[in-house]
Amino acid sequence: MTTALPDIERALRLLHLSGVRDTLETRVLQAQGTQQPFLETFALILQDELDRRHSRLIERRYQQSGLEEKLTLTEFDWSFNPRLPRQACFQLHTLKFIAEGSNALIIGKPGTGKSHVAKAIAYQAVLQGYKVQYLETDDFFNRYVLSPPAQRETRLRAILDGDLLVLDDLFLSRTIPDDAGALLQMLIHQRYKLRRSVVVTSNRVVQDWGAYLGDNTMSTTILDRLMHHCHLLEFDGRSYRLKEAAETLARKTKES
């Protein structure tokens, strides 16, 4: 290596070009060994920097999304409940609905994979560079009502600005905080006006939403905007969680 390399690395550090700095020595050796033209080597070095920046952007978007799992549809066990709307799930996974400003409502029995599908769609959106906000809805409602006003405003701005909002397990609890219904209505209404997509999963059929909100008019308003441009998926079948619990119990019984 040339004696100028430490000076180059120092300059790269000052310029915050970590992608170039991390691969520079390898690229120089590669060029020397193959007599690679300068412009070809330079293009590879620039691509290293672009790749590093893209990776950091994706990781930052993931950390900001609220997701705690990097799930995919390929690892989902479609054979367990073969009547699930597999084609519709993969259609959502293309993310065309985000570009269109459409929504998705995934309704069905507990444990049938609604959250897995929603998280996989959200993670795919992160990988494609979209701003995503994933919320476990009941937990979000409870935390929000206890937050100071300034924190609420910052949180709402992030939720409304995102390209995709996922409200997972809506109405998992039979009761929600007093202000949660108005908050839900505002979120759906504002994102509807902005044509920004929402994915909602719920164990509760839409006919019962008015009872959980305590206001049939509010329920109608929310559903009107949510379902105007919407993909409706119904999940039916056996529970993956009960299957896994039974397998665990059988394994422990066999080992004891």
Automatic annotation (TrEMBL):
Keyword ATP-binding: yes
Occurrences of domain AAA+ ATPase (ranges): 100-233
Coiled coil (residue ranges): none
Stored InterPro entries: AAA+_ATPase, DNAC/IstB-like, IstB, IstB_ATP-bd, P-loop_NTPase
GO BP: DNA replication
Alphabetized Pfam families for the sequence: IstB_IS21
MF (Gene Ontology): ATP binding
Record's keyword annotation contains Nucleotide-binding: yes
Keywords for the protein's UniProt record, in alphabetical order: ATP-binding, Nucleotide-binding
Family from the record: Belongs to the IS21/IS1162 putative ATP-binding protein family.
Protein name: AAA family ATPase
Organism: Paraburkholderia franconis
